Amino acid sequence: MDFRSDNTCPPAPEVLARLQNSLAVGESAYAEDEISAATKARLSRIFEREVDYFPVFTGTAANALAIAQLSGSFGEVVCSESSHIFADECGAVEFHSQARLRPISGNMGKLVPESLPPLTDSGDVHRGRPTVLSLSQSTETGLAYRPEEIVSLTQKARAAGVRVHMDGTRFANALAFTGATPAELSWQAGVDVLCLGATKGGAIGAEAVIFFSPEDAKEFRRMMKRSGHLGARMWFLSAQISAWLEDDFWLRSARHGNMMAALLDRLLRAKGIQPLYPVEANMIFVEMSAGQSVRLSEMGFLHYLAVQPDGRIAVRVVTSQATLETEVEALADAIGRCLATSAGRLA
């Protein structure tokens, strides 16, 4: 059973079925097609304002190009030390934007106002100037920012003239947990650009870059073209995103993933096992030795083992829209057996 991430499960049948119906005819190339226009209109309704929408192939491309669009010259991008853009995107943001990432610590992987460095431009020619604050929603530790938490960060950014990017690869999971609206978790809280992830929610491979101001979106298609991310048949991406959004499937998918994580949390706690972080989205972290992690894999449960911001080593397991209760129950039992042993050897 594969719990490494929510992008290792099959695409959602709901998306595949609707996608097939959308691809029966040809369309205009380079995201100037009717499906992309309809997806833009749908997103504008969802976010309660006119948005500019651009489909891209990967989350890394979405983040790197969106930040490059906002950052400008000589920029510094303030982000969490555990953020995907810093830890897992091979320097893509720095490559495309020529800005420097400035990772900082927070509270269990979540940025808090007191953790932010000075955001004003010092005027020192020997230093970069802060240009973008990047937030992950939900975070790489599985926590969700509430609207008021986002506001507390974006207010400091706004006061210093710093723009705000949100890596929303699991934005839907944060919506499902907080009960907030998409608008409340994004532009109403001060976010300038949202990279909305559909791949981990059931799409084959499609992400949406959403700008909340037309000024910010100017020339973004040129940015996509120059970086090799403006494909001809972009409607293949928009059709996935449209199908994912239809009938609120994106939210139902996220709720299911969250529910499976919450079930695992309850089952582990019943065994006296305390996850490292509150379970707010679809990820759970359990402190475990390398030997115990190997044993868990040998038992058939794939996962990632990683050093956490506080230095502890933990197993990360991720549930998805395709996760079954029986799989969660089996995983909880396996984790319990591994932790009941010494150095990963079953008694």
Q: Could you walk me through the main structural features you see in this protein, from its secondary elements to its overall organization?
A:
There is one protein chain. The chain is α/β, with parallel strands linked by helices and 347 residues long. It folds into two domains: 14-246, Type I PLP-dependent aspartate aminotransferase-like (Major domain) (Aspartate Aminotransferase, domain 2, 3-Layer(aba) Sandwich); 249-339, Aspartate Aminotransferase, domain 1 (Alpha-Beta Complex). It has 13 helices and ten strands. It has a seven-stranded mixed sheet, sandwiched between helices. Strand 4 (129-136), helix 6 (147-159) and strand 5 (163-168) form a beta-alpha-beta unit. Helix 2 (34-46) packs parallel to helix 10. It starts with 12 loop residues before the first helix and ends in an 8-residue tail after the last helix. Pfam families: Beta_elim_lyase (PF01212). Keywords: Pyridoxal phosphate. Its cofactor is pyridoxal 5'-phosphate.
